[in-house]
Write a structure and sequence with these properties.
alpha/beta, Arc Repressor Mutant, subunit A, five-stranded parallel sheet, four-stranded antiparallel sheet, 11 strands
Length: 229
C-alpha cells in the first residue's frame, strides 16, 4: 500500500470486536492488518510498520500493556501512536496505560465514531498528509486534498509517484529515509521495485522542485538515503 492509505494494526483477542473494528476502519479508508494476541502484534509491528496501533489491554500471555512497553522502548517503533482499549475504567488504570507509552486510552464499551475521530487525530500529528492536512516546508506547500504543490507561489507539475515521495519527505523534514523505507512507504510492500527506481524518481522530484528556479531542497546522505533539508 502506498502512503495515500494509512495502515492500522488492530490488536484484539475477541474475534467479534476485531471484526467490528476492522470493518469500520476499512470503511473509513484505512488499510487494516490484524493480530489476535500480543506475540503476533509484536511480529506484525516489525513486518508491517503500521502508522497507528489500536491495542486491547486484556489479552492472554503478552498483555497490551507489555506490547505497548516493548513498542515504545524500541527506537524504530517508539513514534508509532498507540490507542489503548480497556474495560478498566479506573483512573489508576488509565494513568498506567498512558505512562507505559499509550498515546490515547478509551474505555470499553466505546463509541466507534469517537474511536475513528481519535485515530484521525493521532494521524494528523504523525501522518498529516493522509488525513488531508496541508504540508508546508520553507517556500513549498503541498495540499493532499487537491494534489497541488506550489513553490514560492508557483504551481509545480509532479507525477503521482513524485507527489507521494514529496508528501513523505514533508511529513518529517530532516529525517533521512533509506531507499527501502521509501519503497515501503511510496510503492508499498506488495510490489517489487528495484531500489534504483527510487533514485530515478528522486531525480525527477528534484527537477520538478526546481522547475521555476531555487535551490535543491533534497539532500543525499551517502550510504544512508535521502532527506528534505
Amino acid at each position: 500500500m502506498s502512503s495515500d492509505q494509512p495502515t492500522v494494526l488492530v490488536v484484539e483477542d475477541e474475534p467479534a470486536q476485531r471484526e467490528i473494528l476492522s470493518y469500520n476502519l476499512e470503511a473509513e479508508g484505512f488499510r487494516v492488518v490484524r493480530a489476535e494476541n500480543g506475540e503476533d502484534a509484536l511480529v506484525m509491528v516489525s513486518e508491517e510498520n503500521p502508522d497507528i496501533i489500536v491495542l486491547d489491554w486484556m489479552m492472554p500471555n503478552v498483555s497490551g500493556i507489555e506490547v505497548c512497553r516493548q513498542i515504545k522502548s524500541r527506537p524504530e517503533t517508539r513514534n508509532i501512536p498507540i490507542i489503548m482499549l480497556s474495560a478498566r475504567s479506573e483512573e489508576v488504570d488509565k494513568v498506567r496505560g498512558l505512562e507505559t507509552g499509550a498515546d490515547d486510552y478509551m474505555v470499553k464499551p466505546y463509541s466507534v465514531v469517537e474511536l475513528m475521530a481519535r485515530v484521525r487525530a493521532q494521524l494528523r500529528r504523525t501522518r498529516p498528509s493522509t488525513v488531508g492536512v496541508q504540508l508546508d516546508y520553507e517556500d513549498i506547500s503541498l495540499d493532499p486534498e487537491t494534489h497541488r504543490v506550489t513553490r514560492g507561489g508557483d504551481a509545480l507539475k509532479l507525477g503521482p509517484t513524485e507527489f507521494r515521495l514529496l508528501s513523505t519527505f514533508m511529513e518529517k523534514p530532516g529525517r533521512v529515509w533509506s531507499r527501502d523505507q521509501l519503497l515501503d512507504r511510496v510503492w508499498g510492500r506488495d510490489i517489487y521495485v528495484d531500489t534504483r527506481t527510487v533514485d530515478v524518481h528522486i531525480g525527477r522530484l528534484r527537477k520538478a522542485l526546481c522547475q521555476h528556479g531555487g535551490d535543491d531542497p533534497l539532500r543525499t546522505v551517502r550510504g544512508a538515503g535521502y532527506a528534505l533539508g
